[in-house]
Specification:
2 domains, six-stranded parallel beta sheet, 13 strands
Length: about 350
């Protein structure tokens, strides 16, 4: 039986792995490396337990560090395991440092790499995720794209060999997930509210941006519910940012996150994954970034990009009107089966 090795380390990686793992197990010997990029128990263990992902075969405990240091730890740790396991192909997911580290380690050892969610582009090189995407795509042997747009982006860059549109693998798990409304009761969330997540370093590490964002959230005319990312929590304390009118709650499980978005009036975020989840739930989304790797959500009118300005955020939230149409960009929820089929054909 052929051996496939997955490298994961953060929330979006875990969700993609959860969708794909059952299909991989039926067809391959599947090995999992958890890089430990998300070292916080609530951000990591929640997802493995809830999404029924088996205990990883390896944990690198990369932890929090600068991008260079963290990626270096992941490359070094993966290299040792790859030399020992000798997989037939390495699977990497999305655009995290774990994605890049796993792909680089495999490429240096001449092990084929398959990139799940290949071809995504924001064309904003100031985002570390964009660097991760571009490099990973150009060193991968098999490129598995979530949309036609992604495949077109690769073609523009001269990447045309072994490129396949599979649909979005996160849509697979989304369709199978029953929303868990317990977080609303546990946190006494009642009435209309906006659901918010803020975690990207370009927002949380910049005092001016972070204050503008939270001043805007504080001034909105509805309750704002925010599961607080550990990085954001540290920045809020360090920078003495006021959160008086906001409902800050602990990180939630995937199914709880879906429920909180579903019941909200609008979603305000800087997350890539949340943008898509809001789109699938048909909840208007305001993304506090000047670019996105999911341009279809913007062109459809369901997602609006906005700079971290108090006035702009307030006006956008107030004036957002739901579009009349909701195009199907990301497949029919069968990406996992298609990915396994392409892997079998490739091997």
């Amino acid at each position: 039986m052929k051996k496939v090795l997955s490298v994961v380390g953060a929330r979006p990686n875990f969700i993609k792995l959860a969708a794909l793992h059952p299909h991989l197990c039926k067809n391959f010997n599947h090995i999992i490396i958890h890089t430990g990029q998300h070292y916080d128990l609530e951000l990591s263990r929640y997802f493995f337990d809830e999404l029924e992902i088996p205990e990883p075969n390896y944990n690198l405990h990369a932890g929090s560090a600068t991008h260079g240091m963290q990626t270096a730890r992941i490359i070094s740790g993966c290299e040792k395991i790859l030399l020992s396991e000798k997989p037939d192909v390495v699977l990497v997911y999305g655009d995290t440092n774990s994605t890049l580290g796993g792909a680089l380690a495999a490429a240096k050892l001449h092990i084929p790499t398959a990139h799940v969610e290949a071809g995504m582009r924001s064309y904003d090189r100031s985002m570390p995720e964009e660097i991760n995407r571009v490099i990973t795509d150009h060193i991968s042997s098999l490129l598995l794209c979530p949309s036609d747009t992604a495949a077109k982006f690769l073609k523009k860059e001269g990447v045309t060999k072994n490129v396949f549109v599979t649909g979005d693998i996160m849509y697979d798990i989304f369709l199978k997930t029953n929303p868990d409304y317990s977080a609303l009761k546990e946190n006494k969330i009642q009435g209309e509210y906006f659901f918010t997540t803020i975690h990207r370093q370009e927002n949380t590490n910049n005092k001016v941006k972070l204050k503008c964002i939270f001043e805007a959230l504080n001034s909105l005319n509805r309750q704002v519910v925010i599961p607080v990312h550990p990085r954001t929590e540290k920045s809020l304390r360090r920078m003495s940012v006021k959160t008086n009118n906001l409902k800050l709650i602990k990180p939630v499980k995937y199914s709880q996150c879906i429920a909180l978005q579903q019941q909200s009036r609008k979603v305000i975020t800087d997350s890539g994954g949340i943008q898509k989840e809001a789109y699938w739930l048909k909840v208007p989304c305001i993304t506090i970034r000047d670019s996105t790797e999911w341009p279809e959500t913007v062109s459809s009118g369901w997602n609006i990009l906005v700079d971290p300005s108090q006035t702009l955020i307030e006006e956008t939230v107030k004036n957002f009107k739901n579009p009349q149409t909701h195009p199907d960009f990301y497949g029919e929820g069968k990406a996992s089966a298609k990915i396994v089929s392409h892997l079998k054909n490739y091997l």
